[in-house]
Amino acid sequence: GRIVFSDVFDRNIYNEDGYLLQLINENFPTDKGNVEELYESTDYSRDGQVVQLQKASSGTGIDLILLGDGFSDRQIADGSYEDLMELAMQEYFEEEPYKTYKNLFNVYFVYAVSKNEGYHTHGETCFSCRFDGTPQVSGKDSKVFAYALKAIEPERMDQSTIVVIMNSEEDAGTCFMYTPSIRGVDWSDGVTISYLPKGSGDENFGNTLHHE
């Protein structure tokens, strides 16, 4: 039979009714033939590989970990993913006080291969990022932490910054700030995860990155 429901919450949470379709793994008869053909990654060999873009020249360093969501194997193979990570680092240090203290940072990025490119009703991405209603975005924090730990040791997590760049030109962004995991530490500590789309241009991307 048919499932009939009304979502009284923000429709974006349910991906335009696609949420239920994904759960039951089938389409209503009237939907057959209308499912978008999406490119699917087949090469996951670089998934989880870590690249260090910068090592702190003073002290042990503050850790900045960059990740991408919604990028397929072919977008990693053609250098698009790496170019965006390098752009993110460049934009991050365009503003003070980060510009002056750039030498105090360790900067890493971790390859994350998504099954599909971008965000679609029936698509799948590495960190399950989604638009929760402009300008709110979110993702699967637990998996983000798992990938970040490929770059740093667990004891460094409380003082790290993680940025997840979504493969979308939408204008949005959200920062989630965690309290310290170890009791007795300074409350200014605690890891953060910022989710933001790559946007439609370098200036727009840089502004959103600084804001989050």
Mean pLDDT: 87
Give the structural class.
alpha/beta
Q: Give Rg in angstroms.
A: 19 Å
* Shape, per Cα inertia axes: globular
Oligomeric state of shown chains = single chain
Number of helices: 5
Q: What is the count of β-strands?
A: 8
What is the rounded distance between the termini?
Answer: 45 Å
Q: What is the H/E order?
A: HEEHHEEEHEEEH
**What is the percent of helical residues?**
10-25%
Uncertain residue segments: 7-17, 26-32
Q: How do the strands of the widest beta sheet line up side by side?
A: 1-3-2-6-8-7
The largest sheet, given as strand count, sense and whether it forms a barrel, is: 6 strands, mixed
Q: What fraction strand?
A: 15-25%
Structure description:
This protein is of the alpha/beta class and 212 residues long. It has helices at 18-24, 73-77, 80-92, 141-148, 202-211, and strands spanning 50-54, 62-69, 105-110, 130-131, 137-138, 161-166, 174-177, 192-197. The strands form two sheets. The chain has a six-stranded mixed β-sheet, with helices on both faces. A two-stranded antiparallel sheet has the order 4-5. Strand 4 (130-131) and strand 5 (137-138) form a beta hairpin. Helix 3 crosses helix 5. The protein is globular and about 60 Å long.
